[in-house]
Structures are given as structure tokens and as C-alpha cells.
Design brief:
The protein is 72% helix and 0% strand. α2 runs parallel beside α4 and α4 runs parallel beside α6. It is an enzyme of class 2 (transferase).
Length: 202
């Protein structure tokens, strides 16, 4: 199924010159990964501290775009500038899960939101990333199949922040967005598991 992840090659091409400049300045892939994770935690704390200041949620789509750029840059640095490492692989996977969780948890604090669906969206997202990594364990590749991968969740969460900040206000639409994210997350888990097994030599 189609995913925002399919657009990554074009995004990476645009960021390649910036990554080269950062490499020249001595910036490492792991430093970029850690910066993105720490930034996500900071933004999550900010939104959790003032969840009812809806204009503040406009920070979310802006930061998510920057985080996506950081994720692409750390990959370029690792692959094309000789910075690939086992520590980097761990930081990349853990950082994504920590960042997603930190940025989604503040939605729980919005008045009228059903916490169950927010928690389900987070848990299913974590399981989806776990299944993606398990592809390597069973002899396949790391699976990034959609329709609700990391980039798709960022798009959905950024849209939520944009709508809140733009004055759409609170309402049941937030629950429905979380339900859709969770539902498509389950499809993602199935797709990743199925394709990992199909790719694995018998």
C-alpha cells in the first residue's frame, strides 16, 4: 500500500548537500539522531505543559518536518559519509519510538479526548516498528511498509497540530483520527509481517 515513505528518495536528494556540509563541519550521524530525539522530548514536554494553548500546537507540524529532515540527514551521513555503526542502528530505532511516543502523548491531555485511542495508536505504532525490525531477525530486510509507517504517523500528527493551531478546536474528530491511525497501524503490522516472511528464503 502507498506510504509517505515512498517519497523519501526525493526528500533525501534535496538534503544531500546540507548533509555534506554538516559532515564537513564534523557533525556525526549519531549526534543528529540524538538531537532529533531530545528535541522531540522537549516539544512533547512543552505541549504537555500547556495542552489547552491550542496555538502552541502549531509548533508540532513545524518540528515534525524538521525531525523528518534530521532522520533523512542522519541516514545520509551514515551511508554516504562512513558513519554507519551498530550504536547508530540502535539509536535510530530507539530514537524513532521514543520521539513518536513523546510527541503523541500530549494528545492525551487535550480536554474531551478518549485516552484509550491515543494509547492504542501509540502501542500499535511501537509494535509496527518492532515487526519492521524483526524482518531482519528472520532473514529479511528491515521492513518500512505502510500504510501507517513513521512518515505517515508524522503526517497525521502534524495535521492534528495544524488543525488545532488553526482554530478547528477540540472535538470528536481527534478521537476519530487516533482510531484511523490505530486501524491503519494494524494493517501496517500485517503488511510488514507478510512481506518479511515472503522475502525470507525458505
Amino acid at each position: 500500500m502507498a506510504s509517505v515513505y515512498d517519497l523519501k528518495p526525493r526528500f533525501v536528494a534535496l538534503l544531500r548537500p546540507l548533509a555534506a556540509k554538516l559532515a564537513g563541519l564534523g557533525v556525526t550521524a549519531n549526534a543528529v539522531t540524538l538531537a532529533a530525539m531530545i528535541g522531540s522530548i522537549a516539544v512533547g514536554i512543552l505541549l504537555a505543559w500547556w495542552p489547552t494553548c491550542l496555538e502552541l500546537w502549531l509548533v508540532l507540524p513545524v518540528f515534525l518536518f524538521l525531525r523528518m529532515a534530521a532522520n533523512a540527514i542522519d541516514g545520509i551521513l551514515a551511508r554516504e559519509h562512513g558513519m554507519k555503526s551498530r550504536l547508530g542502528a540502535i539509536l535510530n530505532e530507539v530514537g524513532d519510538v521514543v520521539s513518536d511516543t513523546a510527541l503523541t502523548l500530549p494528545v492525551l491531555l487535550l480536554p474531551g479526548v478518549t485516552g484509550f485511542w491515543v494509547i492504542m495508536a501509540i502501542v500499535i505504532a511501537i509494535i509496527g516498528e518492532l515487526v519492521g525490525v524483526l524482518g531482519q531477525v528472520v532473514g529479511s530486510t528491515r521492513r518500512y511498509d505502510g500504510p501507517m509507517g513513521k512518515s505517515d504517523r508524522a503526517l497525521a500528527l502534524g495535521l492534528l497540530g495544524l488543525m488545532l493551531g488553526a482554530g478547528f478546536g477540540l472535538g470528536s474528530w481527534i478521537d476519530w483520527e487516533m482510531i484511523i491511525v490505530a486501524g491503519l497501524g494494524l494493517v501496517t503490522i500485517f503488511n510488514r509481517a507478510r512481506k518479511a516472511l515472503a522475502e525470507t528464503p525458505k
